[in-house]
């Protein structure tokens, strides 16, 4: 039985003060400990958020990392740095990074490998653009992204990865995928994992849905057999709406 995992992706939002307030509010209202909860804050707020959540079951995540160990890479942040501020998770290959910052399947893979080497759990994002869905390319795109992310990853390491299926047309648009549309792709992702590894491994990997998930549509999505959680953008910026999804 896969444990559900709900992660908040705060994106480029929150000052330190706002981040601390939000983390505190989530902690105060969080009682459903049978669900894993992760807060993915901006780099500048990671340590402050860690100070709030460190004695709670809530985990800290970053939104990106760089694949080199250290050195002359101005503006980048390493896996070791993320560990040093208390991160256990890191989002890799979010569609906004693929779209605006030139991330490719290859750079996503390098980041996944480096995160795993430092015992950070990668939340690997995959998902098709609207025109790709409309052209019937969803499976092709998602398969390429999933296979790309797992290149060179051993079975033991693969078991630690969380996959997030985020149809790009559903992110921040209020246009959520139907539970059937999402389930179809989640099942497809699991079938790719079977072909890459085996059924047992594929059955153990958690696959989150992301894209306009809200308190009022979460229950229906999370009821699907292959949807194991959510990666939440907009609705994670208010404790009430984020907790609403956790409680769903
Ligand atoms: P959204 O974002 O919930 O605001 O659609 C999800 C995401 O980008 O992870």
| CATH homology group | Aldolase class I
Tally of structural domains: 1
Residue-averaged pLDDT, rounded? Answer: 97
Which structural class matches the secondary elements? Answer: alpha/beta
Major sheet: 8 strands, parallel, barrel
- C-alpha end-to-end distance: 18 Å
Count of extended strands: 8
With strands numbered from the N-terminus, the spatial order across the biggest sheet is 1-2-3-4-5-6-7-8
**Second CATH tier, the architecture:** Alpha-Beta Barrel
Name of the CATH class: Alpha Beta
Bound molecules: 2-phosphoglycolic acid
Q: What is the beta-strand fraction?
A: 15-25%
Q: What pattern of helices and strands is seen along the backbone?
A: EHEHEHEHHEHHHEHHEHEH
Query: What is the third-level CATH name, the topology?
Result: TIM Barrel
Net shape: globular
- Poorly predicted ranges: none
Helix count equals 12
What fraction, in percent, of the residue positions are helical? Answer: 40-55%
Rg result: 17 Å
Describe this structure in words.
The chain has 248 residues and is of the alpha/beta class. The protein has one domain: TIM Barrel (Alpha-Beta Barrel). 44% of the residues lie in helices and 16% in strands. It has twelve helices and eight strands. Strands 1-2-3-4-5-6-7-8 form an eight-stranded parallel beta barrel, surrounded by six helices. Helix 3 (79-84) links the parallel strand 3 and strand 4 (87-92). It starts with a strand and ends with a helix. 2-phosphoglycolic acid (PGA) binds at residues 9, 166, 171-172, 210-213, 231-235.
């Amino acid at each position: 039985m896969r444990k559900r995992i709900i992660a908040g992706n705060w994106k480029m939002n929150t000052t330190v003060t706002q981040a601390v307030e939000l983390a505190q509010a989530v902690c105060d209202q969080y009682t459903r400990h049978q669900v894993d909860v992760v807060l993915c804050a901006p780099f500048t707020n990671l340590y402050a958020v860690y100070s709030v959540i460190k004695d709670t079951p809530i985990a800290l995540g970053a939104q990106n990392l760089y694949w080199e160990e250290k050195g002359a890479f101005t503006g980048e942040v390493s896996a070791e740095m993320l560990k040093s501020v208390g991160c256990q998770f890191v989002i890799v290959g979010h569609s906004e990074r693929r779209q605006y910052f030139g991330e490719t399947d290859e750079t996503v893979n390098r980041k996944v490998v480096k995160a795993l080497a430092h015992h950070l759990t990668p939340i690997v994002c995959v998902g098709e653009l609207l025109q790709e869905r409309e052209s019937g390319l969803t499976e092709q795109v998602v398969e390429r992204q999933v296979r790309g992310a797992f290149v060179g990853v051993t079975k033991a390491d693969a078991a630690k990865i969380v996959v997030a299926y985020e149809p790009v047309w559903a992110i921040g648009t209020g246009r959520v995928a139907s539970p059937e549309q999402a389930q179809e792709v989640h099942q497809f992702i699991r079938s790719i994992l079977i072909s890459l590894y085996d059924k047992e491994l594929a059955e153990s990997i958690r696959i989150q849905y992301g894209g306009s998930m809200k308190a009022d549509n979460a229950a229906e999505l999370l009821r699907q057999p292959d949807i194991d959680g959510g990666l939440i953008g907009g609705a994670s910026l208010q404790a009430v709406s984020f907790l609403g999804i956790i409680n769903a």
